[in-house]
Specification:
Helix 3 links the parallel strand 3 and strand 4. It contains five helices and five strands, in the order E-H-E-H-E-H-E-H-E-H. Helix 1 packs parallel to helix 5 and helix 3 crosses helix 5. The protein is globular and about 50 Å long. It starts with a strand and ends in a 7-residue tail after the last helix. The protein has a single domain, classed as Alpha/beta knot, CATH 3.40.1280. The relative contact order is 0.23. It has a five-stranded parallel β-sheet with strand order 2-1-4-3-5. It is of the alpha/beta class and about 160 residues long. This is Ribosomal RNA large subunit methyltransferase H.
């Protein structure tokens, strides 16, 4: 299975890079992982709704350039569906069984994802109604994908 994580923003903190590297290394046993980091657009203080929409569209266009036609796209969206770790494992497993061996997880910028990206998504996933730092969220996503593969394999990690 091929997993692509397309995310807006760069990781600067060494401790987060180390965690991402650790989960990326663990995932090599289960899938081919590709992380695509895109530049985030600077949002001015007190940006108008129109300015925010333009920023999301610009970031969205950048994201869409990296989504291939054969990808099953999972957009991380606060308005998406909340699922358990077991449900996420099932989603990953079912995708592979249905021939969707190219999964793309999309993490937007601080303003969220554009309508175009959300419309392209095959599934909208929410981890919580809470807001998380995008850099930390990447670690959380990789951990849950790793946990999902462990669940699929019936391996002792998940509790």
């Amino acid at each position: 299975m091929n997993i692509t994580v397309i995310c807006v923003g760069k990781i600067k903190e060494k401790y987060l890079k180390a965690a991402i590297d650790e989960y990326s290394k663990r995932l090599t046993r289960y899938c081919k992982l590709d992380i695509v980091e895109l530049n985030d657009e600077k949002t001015p203080d007190n940006a108008s709704e129109k300015e925010e929409l333009l920023i999301k569209e610009k970031e969205g266009n950048s994201i869409l350039k990296h989504i291939k036609d054969n990808m099953y796209v999972i957009a991380l969206d606060i308005q998406g569906k909340m699922v358990s770790s077991e449900d996420l494992a099932q989603l990953i497993s079912d995708s592979g069984i249905k021939g969707n061996s190219n999964l793309a997880f999309i993490i937007g910028g601080s303003l969220g994802l554009s309508k175009e990206v959300l419309n392209r998504a095959d599934f909208k996933l929410s981890f919580s109604k809470m807001t998380f730092p995008h850099q930390l969220f990447r670690v959380m996503l990789l951990e849950q994908v790793y946990r999902g593969f462990r669940i699929i394999g019936g391996e002792p990690y998940h509790k």
